Amino acid sequence: MIRYSLKMRSSAASKHVSGSEKIVEASDAPRSIADLVERGMTHPRGPVDFLSIKVERLQDEEIRYLDALPVSTIQTKTSREGRDAMRTFLRNLGIASPDKVLRELDAASGMRGAVLLDADTLEHLEPDHARGVRATCMDRERECDEPPCKSKNHFVEALVLATKVAHAPHIIGELCISDDPDYVTGYAASTAGYRRITCVKEKGSENGGRIFLYRGDHEGVPETIDYLERQAVIVRGVTPLNADAPLPDKWKYLRETLDAMRSQGLYRTLRRMDSAQSSEVLCDGRKRIMLASNHYLDFSSDERVRRAAVQATETFGAGSGGSRLTTGNGVWHERLEKALADFKASESALLFNTGYEANLGAISALMDRSCVIFSDALNHASIIDGCRLSGARIVVYRHNDMEDLAHALRRTPFKRGLLVSDAVFSMGGDILDLPSFVRLAEKYGLLSMVDEAHSTGVIGKHGHGIVEHFNGQARPDILMGTLSKSLGAEGGFICGRELLINYLRNKSRPFIFSTSMPPATAASSLKALELLQTEPERVRTLRDNVRFFCERLTDAGLPTHSETAIVPIAVGDEKRSLRVADELWRRGIVLSAIRYPTVRRGEARLRAALMSSHTKAQLAFASKTIADVLREL
User: Fold this and answer.
1) Which of 89, 234, 278, 348 makes an SS bond possible with 501, Cβ 3.0 to 4.6 Å?
2) SS3 assignment, position 566
3) Which CATH homologous superfamily contains domain 261-290+537-632?
4) 17, 52 in Cβ contact below 8 A?
């Protein structure tokens, strides 16, 4: 195929007016030349005195094909905002003096070509300053039988030029402002992308310029100029249609999604707490009863727990410095793991930074695509995400229904797998049928895993969790728990055989690649765990509070029962649940409206989470107020 490079230049009174590049097939050359002449003679800057057309024949092997740079738009309303965007671009390139570069850009106005500027010394490298360096011999790839576009398309031509320049040897970036008085959009480009800046100058201004930023030994300058001025380039993937219109709104989907959530009563916002989490908190300048916190035993505000955190920070610093496998393994981590293993009557334990990471890290490390996971329908999101991340086949059985689980096990072929469930379900507060769960796991040769986030410190005679709750009749292979609920800190853990823990220590990505928890967190968790064992009356008080609260709700016309610290109060409609929660807030009660996707659509509820430190007076007031508001709304 015969192709020609067409270059048009026009000027008036020795001042550059217009220029354009095309690479066309031989059959299109006459029409394209005519279009370029018409364009050069009718430029918005006025009549021209001189116009030249240069035609060069190209061999196919001389042409280099490049993919168009990825495009993004920076919306700016004023030239000042546009200049700020260019400054940010320059700083990201490691330019020490962005303002000096912008002054060079302003001084380039009127040059026929671009400034070739050393990015570090700001030395001019173009051989002829008046002429500058020109990027020529380029065009976009067209569809079959598509004729060359007659009219100027700023965006298309700029993207083609920027793509070529970005791939030039030693060029790290480019800045451009058009000298067209009607076009205020400019750009900043590098191999990372083409940043379209919607306003970089005032409307009507003929000032424009271009800078190519060079980095490297100056011996490479001739190579750079030769590429820019002589290398034929065709850029693929440039869309010409309506390219000067605003680019597609990449944020539209996000706005529409949030608007839909608002209309359905599913939009979530944050409320700031201005005090420590306890049975009473300070919010918006007012004390309110806290009925939404998972700090069931109120250890977070215990002076002894807080002092342990302070002392650990003073001795060991604020952070751990790295992953446990590199520099982040400390004495407090090891002490806490030993104490957790003893508390759960397990051989060993492993800490994670959050309970979410513990579930994610354990399940994804133990299971793979060859496995099957049997998961309760109401398991926590962290379990669900861990199952998905593993790549295993997931079989969901009806909530806490051991007959349905048995049926699923009988009908599902597998070689290796896992049964996984919450111990206490976070939204309903009900308890797993552990003996049947473990019995099925053993019968079918599957690992069994139970999430004790909401059972540790809550159920069992001494708050040891679900195994103690069932009097040691059954023990799962893997016990997962958190430090952020009853123990009042932050973090997660896995307890089980030493073989299991050694495996996770070597295979669990969240453990391997996360900086470990700060010493203060581990120390405060250890102190809370010690107090849980020496002060079991906290667990008994918590149970008494739950019993009292449920009785008061029942007396007020809301029949309620719970064996755990979680008391769900059904509402149903998502919007109504929000209205109820907002009204309770106004009356001094912090109580969360739980909605889809945390629970099923149409099953919105208030989720009351009780503490051992709640007083009977607080609970009596709260139960009456909740019943009153539900009747009113």
Assistant:
1) 348
2) strand
3) Aspartate Aminotransferase, domain 1 (3.90.1150.10)
4) no
Mean pLDDT of the chain: 91
Kindly report, residue by residue over 421-461, the tens digit of the pLDDT. 999 998 889 999 999 999 999 999 999 999 999 999 999 99
- The architecture (CATH level 2) of 301-534 comes to 3-Layer(aba) Sandwich (3.40)
136-187 per-position pLDDT tens digit: 998 998 765 555 555 567 788 899 999 999 999 999 999 999 888 888 999 9
Per-residue pLDDT, 243 = 43
Q: Burial level of 251, CB count in 10 A (0-12/13-18/19+)?
A: exposed
pLDDT tens-digit profile of 235-251?
Answer: 998 875 444 455 567 78
Rounded Cα distance, 210 and 179, in Å: 10
What are the two backbone dihedrals, phi and then psi, of residue 579, each rounded to the nearest 5 degrees?
Answer: -60, -40
3-class secondary-structure state, position 568: strand
- Per-residue pLDDT at 13 exceeds 80: no
pLDDT average, residue stretch 483-508: 96
Q: Which 3-state string (H, E, C) describes 372-425? A: EEEEECCCCHHHHHHHHHHCCEEEEECCCCHHHHHHHHHHCCCCCEEEEEECEC
CA distances from 72 to 155, 187, 252, 477 (A): 12, 10, 14, 51
What pairs with residue 480 in β-bridges?
A: 451, 494
Q: What's 323's DSSP letter? A: B
Query: Is the Cα dihedral 566, 570, 573, 578 positive or negative?
Result: negative
| Cα separation, 249 vs 230, whole angstroms | 37
**Quick check: 415 and 385 in contact, CB under 8 A?**
no
Q: What value does the CA radius of gyration of the chain take, rounded to a whole number of Å?
A: 34
Residues annotated catalytic, as ranges: 426, 454, 485
Domain segments of the chain: what residues?
A: 3-58, 64-236, 261-290+537-632, 301-534
Classify strands 589-590 and 393-397 as parallel, antiparallel or unpaired: unpaired
**pTM above threshold 0.70:** no
Provide CB contacts within 8 A for 160, sequence distance 6+: 21, 68, 138, 139, 140, 233, 235, 238
